[in-house]
Amino acid sequence: MSFYEGNHLGGTPGLLPKPYYWWEGGALMGSLIDYWYYTGDTQWNDVAQDGLLFQTGPNNDYMPPNQTVTEGNDDQGFWGMAVLSAAETNFQNPPDGKPQWLALAQAVFNTQAARWETRYCGGGLRWQIFTWNNGYNYKNSISQACFFNIAARLARYTGNQSYAHWAEKTWDWMVTTKLLDTRTFYIYDGMHIENCSRITPYQWTYNAGAFLLGAAAMYNASTTAAQAETWRERVDGLLNGSLLFFTGATKDIMTEVACEPVDLCDLDQQSFKAYLARWMAATTKWAPWTYGRIKPLLEASAIAATSTCTGGDNDRMCGLKWNTRKWDGTTGVGQQMAAMEVILANMIERSPPPVTDWDGGTSVGDPAAGGNGAGADIGRKGRAFHAVSDAERAAYPHKDPILGLDAFFDSLRALSSHSLLDLYAQRFASCGSTYSMTALGSSVLVTNEVENIKTILGTNMVDWPIDGPRLYCTLPVLGPNSIFSSNGAAWHKARAMLKPSFVRNQISDLKCFDRHIRNMLATIPADGVTFDLQSLLFDMTMDSSTDFMLGHSTGLLTQASPAAQRFVRDFEYASRESAKQARLGPVLHKLPHRKLKKAVRDLREYVRFYVHKAADEKKNGSKTKDRDYVFLDELLLQNPPEEYTIDQVLSVLVAGRDTTATAMASVFYFLARSPTAVAKLREEIKTIDGEYPTWEQLRHLKYLNNVIKEALRLFSPVATNSRTAAKETVLPRGGGKDGSLPVLVRKGTLVRWLSHCLHRNKAVFGPDADEFRPERWDDLRVGWEYIPFSGGPRICLAQQFALTQIAYAVFKFFRIFRSIEARDSRPLLLQTNLTIFFPFGCLVSVERA
């Protein structure tokens, strides 16, 4: 700090004296944050805060007017990365009325996203911001690296997928222009727009470091195993490429190879190693498997750097060339920062993990900061986060929603889905257990009467076919002959075809499922890191369901093929869009939706490939499948038409993947909030010897089964259901002043019931019906009051199959982990698709047994 005068009388906060450029002041503020983060020493915190706030500029976007002579995108980027570090480490927040760290980082991102231009070189940021500055015609990697780094880290911190989109876009542009060579993962300096194919070949440590940390953030922010695997490979590639910068006898001393060996490092380049050290250390938090490779490099470099810190008038100034093991006669801010950063980096293992918006982060954001609002663009007709009404903000007070495509609208849909169920519950309280309402111009009868539900699903099922919204949400994806979309004789045919595939001897064969459970458990971080268990469960059930049905797993938890990844994307998109159409009524259902049709066509082609493959194997007597018993083989024994077969395969896939994953997630969600239940459950699990319980053993674990029942009671995968009267008919209750008499139902009337409300009936489940208490099932006996798998002839065929999988998953999980802790304090919310799910994931951390 002997070089810094910004905290002295007459000094300018945030600025280093000439000849240092403005950007290095931002880099220094970042180093002061790192110093506090690693050591806990607060003596420089106010200095860093003052500097970071003083330089924000009139629009709070790090565009101060006095820097227009020299400011480039990379200069602004370094200040943006510094305030983002402040948000991620929970550095002391600015006073009220001052711009906040997260909002400042978002402002930098938004102003830079607005500068992305495709006229020259197909995209990218120019080096300089202003046309009059030398270098405006140059597109350099560090400008892209800063933008990529900020976008990726904002994606991780907020969960807003538009940031992830920009990070992907920047990465793809770097690869397309060959500034990033994916064979070696070397990153080159840049190119002039007059000839985009002519690359300046210099390589710098800070380029490698910025891209490395950004890739690690993208890995950590991935919402699917396929995404995580892609970014894991990129992290490994960049780490391999960065080895270029480690020289010496054992190739472990950090060196600025483009200028150090020839003594040509300029004032800027003397500090570059500071940022590679900073970002390599931070990478180990978001990509933990890299620690074993990175730590020895940081350790050897720190020892070498320390050996040069013997110079200057005070005998403690550090040199630039660490390989010499002595002071090389140079001094400066860059040399001091580089030595400090690499020494601090060796403390990373005992430093806390960076926070996120939902996991301890306290910095307040503004996705529309900086005036452009690019970070608020989430692909929905240009609507931005700042367009949220005050009422919406009051209902959901968090700074940015987290996780999932179109994150902001997902949060609103979650609120509307949950609020709608709450509205139904309020109506039951005020209007009785059966009432009429109007929705989209049509009359809907809503009931929570057990006798009415029993009549519709059971005793008088023939009068109540699937139609209306219930049909519209399945028809586009599953086809007209699916067991979920057909009625009458067509439904009986489909059921007869599928039922033999769920016989008990196949339910008890858990070998296939065990393989996918083990794959999932292997991906779980066990060092207290927050992760989304729901996302892993959806990947795992997709892998196991496709394995069970097709004999070939999608492999999302291991290494999914591009075709499998595309199938999953199409499947999820089609499910989401068809459910949305159903909620908006028959008019939208009949309108053209080309993208939905294409997704459905493509996902059906994926299944068709395996249908053809299975048919050929059946004909030729060959076998290439991953397992002996395959659902598809059983179906083909009946020689069904091809499209009919695909309908049924997709039907079972929806049930086997979505509903099972949601059910499993609900179990872990409630257990993460009930350590007493976890302790009791683990004691029961310990009574089973061996790692592979049988179906019979699982069935006799009473408390485990009580836990599953209770979770399904509070969070049934299908929270609401409906049927449509095929003719004028009668329901046994709902008429008269007190609702105790029969009620006439006209032909075409939609009747809806809600297991979400039915399962919270205090008269049946007790005054604590809204609470998770597995012990209630010790003596509780219920019938139609509890229908997580529906009821009557159309009760879920795979009920026992699903329950066995859930029990097995919980058993295996608590064999490995002794505790699970919730990392999300928000109230329970659900969101509807074809099934329901937790809109913000099941965020937890675990500890190994």
UniProtKB/TrEMBL annotation:
It is found in: Endomembrane system. Signal peptide: none annotated. It is an enzyme of class 3 (hydrolase). It catalyses: Random hydrolysis of (1->6)-alpha-D-mannosidic linkages in unbranched (1->6)-mannans. One of its GO terms (molecular function) is iron ion binding. Keywords: Glycoprotein, Glycosidase, Hydrolase, Iron, Membrane, Metal-binding, Signal. Its EC number is 3.2.1.101. GO terms for cellular component: endomembrane system. This is mannan endo-1,6-alpha-mannosidase.
